[in-house]
Amino acid sequence: MRNLQDERVVVTGGSRGLGLAIVEALVARGARVTVVARDRVRLAEVERLGVTVRPGDATDAALMDTVIADVKPSVLILNAGAIPFMAPIDEQSWETFSTVWNTDVKAGLHGIQAALKTPLPPGSRVLITSSGAATVGAPLSGSYAGAKRMLWFMAHHANDIANERGLGIHFQVLVPLQMIETALVHQVASAYARCQGISIEAFLAARYGAPLSPRQYGEYVVTLLTDPRHETGVAYGIKADTGITLLDG
């Protein structure tokens, strides 16, 4: 099994939430982690974990090209994303509706392009964060569900190119199948819970069953990277009740 010891890993959006949980799990395995994020204050806190930090916006193509060329990671985790504006479709402006496209999808595009252009070393893995909303929709989250599904398609497109060029890079999609308690999820879950007239806790329990903490999620991501059973699939669902499940091979 792969153990990640001394492997070079780049994580975008790794200074908070699920990205930070992934970084913590990687550091615990001895990986040499570089975190790309915009918030310099949070990056200073993350740096105490012994990681390298690169302040900047993952939607900046030049930044991603430079980071990938400098670090040459064997694992690239594209996790950067925006908090969607929560409102029914008739209360969304185009700017609020398209927020996730302009952040998550744009950052995903430039990360994928950098991985292919550099290219990453043979045997490298690129993990792209999607969402269970990509399979069921998200009526209060603007374009969130569609954007997260687009990232899923992009992984397949990238695999086609990597295979055609014989690069030996494999692109995969992380699909959390339940809301995990982060700042983003609290805002999203609050909106849906209010619509149903129930508490956040009741909403999450009724919809998803057992809770999944950010750290548990991070451990699942590391398992996906180290367990050979997960080397060849494309999209993997992650849920407390079922663990890691192949959604799209």
Please tell me how large the radius of gyration is.
Answer: 17 Å
Largest sheet: 8 strands, mixed
CATH class: Alpha Beta
What's the pLDDT, averaged over the residues? 93
Number of domains: 1
Helix content bin: 40-55%
Q: What is the H/E order? A: EHEHEHEHHEHHEHHHEE
CATH architecture: 3-Layer(aba) Sandwich
Number of helical regions = 10
Classify the fold: give the CATH topology: Rossmann fold
Helix and strand content put the structural class at alpha/beta
Distance between the termini: 20 Å
In what range is the share of β-strand residues? 15-25%
Strand order of the largest sheet: 3-2-1-4-5-6-7-8
Features:
8-stranded mixed β-sheet, single chain, 8 strands, 249 residues, alpha/beta, globular
What does this molecule look like?
The structure is a single chain. With 249 residues, the protein is of the alpha/beta class. The chain has one domain: NAD(P)-binding Rossmann-like Domain (Rossmann fold), CATH 3.40.50.720. It has an 8-stranded mixed beta sheet, sandwiched between helices.
Short description:
It is built from 10 helices and 8 strands. An 8-stranded mixed beta sheet has the order 3-2-1-4-5-6-7-8, sandwiched between helices.
List the helices and strands and how they pair.
Layout: E1 8-12, H1 17-28, E2 32-37, H2 40-47, E3 52-55, H3 61-71, E4 75-78, H4 94-97, H5 99-117, E5 125-129, H6 133-136, H7 144-165, E6 170-176, H8 183-196, H9 200-208, H10 214-226, E7 235-239, E8 243-248
Parallel strand pairs: 1-2, 1-4, 2-3, 4-5, 5-6, 6-7
Antiparallel strand pairs: 7-8
Helix pairs in contact: 1-10, 3-5, 5-7, 8-9
